[in-house]
Specification:
Length: 236
């Protein structure tokens, strides 16, 4: 059993580049121990979630990335990590990033599942790692509730890619040219209205309908109603 003092010496030697294979294995065993693994996974998930709800890269996101490297390197040292686990993590991370640019949640969900699976497959006991991941997700869920419900935090990236302005008439948006100013205006029929046809308004051709009666060509009419693109006229 290696004491805390000996672990400190190991990390010092690591910084100096003179760690022996035995010391490297000791570091790997320390990182892969249940308590340290739980602490690392909690920090990874908590930091990643906090970074997701932040406007810029912060210390939480940086620490999360560092802990992720330590986690995988530690298990790689003791040869308890597979290529599948690494690939699942990389693919999951890519899917989550792509999800930020794509409407929908399918890619994000698949990416999240891939990341969780990559952590569960690390180590020699899927059951133990599954329990650790479950505890980490529980703690992360509590953080999410605090951020969203307590501090009303939102994912900043979505503010840039999602249109939040109301596109109604009250907000100044219309899906067509506003012709309400034509009500009461006198014009002439360019074609016969049977009951629909074309009228001339200041030498501009506009589709129109009569208020019910048939109107011949070149007749003077008055615009009595405008509803969207529908212009209703009445013969004078």
């Amino acid at each position: 059993m290696i004491s805390v003092y000996e672990y400190i010496l190991i990390f010092i030697h690591l910084d100096l580049g003179i760690v022996s294979g035995q010391n490297a294995n000791s570091i790997g065993e320390l990182i892969s121990s249940p308590i340290v693994t739980l602490i690392l996974t909690c920090i990874i998930f908590l930091g990643a979630l906090y970074q997701l709800y932040s406007h810029r890269i912060n210390i939480a996101g940086i620490i999360s990335m560092i802990c992720t490297l330590i986690f995988f390197i530690g298990y790689a040292i003791i040869d308890e990590i597979s290529l599948i686990s690494v690939l699942l993590f990389v693919i999951g991370a890519l899917l989550v990033v792509i999800e930020l640019f794509v409407v929908g949640a399918v890619l994000g969900i698949l990416g999240f599942i891939s990341i969780i699976a990559s952590f569960v497959l690390v180590g020699d006991s899927i059951l133990n790692m599954g329990i650790i991941i479950a505890v980490s997700l529980l703690v992360t869920t509590i953080e999410w509730v605090i951020l969203v419900k307590g501090f009303n935090r939102k994912i900043p990236f979505f503010d840039k890619v999602i249109l939040k302005d109301s596109t109604n008439k009250e907000s100044g948006y219309t899906s067509h040219d506003d012709r309400s100013h034509l009500i009461g205006k006198l014009c002439t029929t360019y074609t016969a209205l049977r009951p629909s046809g074309i009228i001339l308004v200041d030498d501009q051709r506009i589709d129109a309908v009569s208020d019910g009666s048939f109107i011949q060509k070149d007749q003077e009419v008055r615009i009595i109603q405008v509803e969207g693109t529908r212009v209703v006229v009445r013969e004078i």
